[in-house]
Amino acid sequence: MKHSAAKKQRLPALLLAAILLMGALTGCRSASAGGSTSSPASAETAVRGFDPSSTDWDAIVKAARGTTVTFYGWGGDADRNEYLNTTVAQALKAQYDITLEVVGMDIDQILSQLSGEKQAGTESGSIDMIWINGENFRSARENGLLYGPFTQSLPSYQQWVDMKDTENQQDFGYPIEGYEAPYGKAQMVLIKDSARTPETPKNAQELLEFVKQYPGQVTYPAPPDFTGSAFVRNIVYELCGDTQFQNMAADKETLRAAVAPAMEYLRQLNPYLWNQGKTFPATSGEVETMFLDGELALNMSYSPFTVSTGIEKGTYPATAETFVLDNGTIGNTNYIAIAYNSPNKAGAMAAINYILSEDGQLSQYRALRTIPVLSPKLLEQSQLDAFHAVDIGQGVLTQEELLEHRLPEMPSALVPLLEEIWLEEVVGK
Predict the structure, then answer these.
(1) Is 265 helix (H, G, I), strand (E, B) or coil?
(2) DSSP single-letter state for residue 394
(3) What is the pLDDT of residues 198-220, one digit of tens each?
(4) In the chain, N or C: fewer CB atoms in 10 Å?
(5) Considering only the top CATH level, what class is 13-185+333-390?
(6) Does the CA dihedral 193-199-203-205 come out positive or negative?
(7) Rounded to whole angstroms, how far apart are CA atoms 244 and 240?
C-alpha cells in the first residue's frame, strides 16, 4: 500500500482459510472442555465499561480520552510516517488526549496476525486501526477480521463525506457497509521528462507509437505489483471499456474473452519494450529508478503528485511532468478499518474522525498531496478556498483535472484472475 495507494500484498485465501479452520477446531476443543468463549465486544465492555456499538459521540470521546491507539499499515513511506507521528499525533493529543502509536507492517503480516489471534480466541488484541483497501479488505471482511459497522458513529463522516459516492459504498467493487472509512484518494498517472520526450500520448494508439519511437526505453512493473497491475487494468479499460467488468462474475475464462483485445495490444508492445517484454521489472520502485537514471523514457505511479514532491526533493528533474489518457485513468480510495478485536475501538473511532475532519484532510493534502476524500459539495466556500490554496507544486495535474479523468476500479475478485491471464498471454509473447 504505497498509498494502500499502492504497496499491496495479498494473504493467500487458502492460507487464511486454513488458519481460520484451525481456529474453529481449537475453539470447539476449548468449548468441549468448558472454556469461555465471550465476544470481543463483551470483553471491551468489561474492560472499559463502554459499548463500542454506541452512536453517542460524547460517550465515544469520553471512553477514548487518555488512551493509546495503534495504527498498523505499510511503513515504507517516510513522509507519511513523519506526518502521522507529528501532525496527526499532536492533533489527537490536543483534541482527545489520545496517544497515537504508528506501527509499520505489511498488510499480509497484519492479516496473518489477526487470523492467528482469531484462531487463538484472543478477545483483546494489539491492533486498533488498519490502513487497508481492495482485495485485502475483502479477505478481511469475509474472514471476520474487522469490526463494524462504525462509520455511522463519526460526525466527520456524516457531515463531510458523500455517502452516495460509489467509492464510499464499494472498495474494488466489494460492499463497504460501514466497515472502513475513507483515508485518501489515489489515481494512476503516467510520467515523462518533457526535455527528453516532448510527446504526450493521449490514448492507446499514441502510446504504442510512443513506445515504437523510443524502443527499449519503456516498460511497466510486472503484476502483481500494484502499479503494474493498475497499468494493465487501464489498458483493459482503454480498449474494452470499464462497464462490463463492474458486475462480471469471477470466472477466468469469461474474463479472458472480455480482455482479449487488451492482451493482444500488450503483446504488440512487447517487441519495443525494455528487454523486448521477455521479462519485466518486479516493482514500481525499480521502474522509477530506471526512469530517474535515464534508462527509461516513461514512468508511472498511483500517487498523482509524485513528480511535484520529487522535484521539491531534487530526485526528479524540473522538466518531469504527469499526464493521463484522454479516456481517463483508474483511481481508488484507500481506507482505515478497525480490527475485530481492537482493545480501543472508541479511541480508533475518535482518531478516524479527526483524520476525516476538514483539518485532518487539509493537513494531509498539504503534507502528502493525497487527494482529499471530503465532498466539495458538502464543504463551505471558505473550506473549499483553503483546499484550493494548497500549493501542489509543479509538473502535476490539479485535483480537478484528475477527478475529471477518474475511472472506477475493477472488482477485487477479478484482479488476481486478470494478473494470471497477463502472465499466461503477455510475458515473453
Answers:
(1) helix
(2) S
(3) 999 999 999 999 999 999 999 99
(4) C
(5) alpha beta
(6) negative
(7) 8
